[in-house]
Design goal:
The protein has about 180 residues and is an all-alpha fold. It has one domain. The protein contains 3 helices and no strands. It starts with a helix and ends with a helix.
Length: about 180
Amino acid sequence: MKNVTDSFLSLGHWPSAGSFGFNTDILATNPINLSIVIGVLIFFGKGVLSDLLDNRKQRILNTIRNSEELRGRAIEQLEKARARLRKVEREADQFRVNGYSEIEREKWNLINSTSKTLEQLENYKNETIQFEQQRAINQVRQRVFQQALQGALGTLNSCLNNELHLRTISANIDMLGAMKEITD
């Protein structure tokens, strides 16, 4: 065991000229080792790191491109929605204006219709009154005529003989028939 330890200790004292050996001085060897490791990493890892960065760059560019497309579509949809809103507002205004004019038109139509109906009712009332007056006048005429006829018949019956009486009755019957045809 002592031989192994001695061999390591003797390695630490090797002269640097012309031979390869281990330098056990930690402060002197760390920057050299780090620069070698970094150099090896840069030399061999350059392609991998470049690929990783290119992939990351492509993903970022694709994300930006997708975002721009989404933004464009959103702006397009917003413009369509605004156009639809303006159209609906115009239609609503038109319906409102048309509704008001339609209401006014219906109001005047209703007033005119009601006025015509009232006028017709007034005419019917006047016609009914005239008809009833005419009927009442005709009834009064008939009664007066019947009473006059009965009075005349009573007078004639008391004053006339049988033959004259029959002629008078026939004449009156003829007159009544003629009056009945006139009234019918």
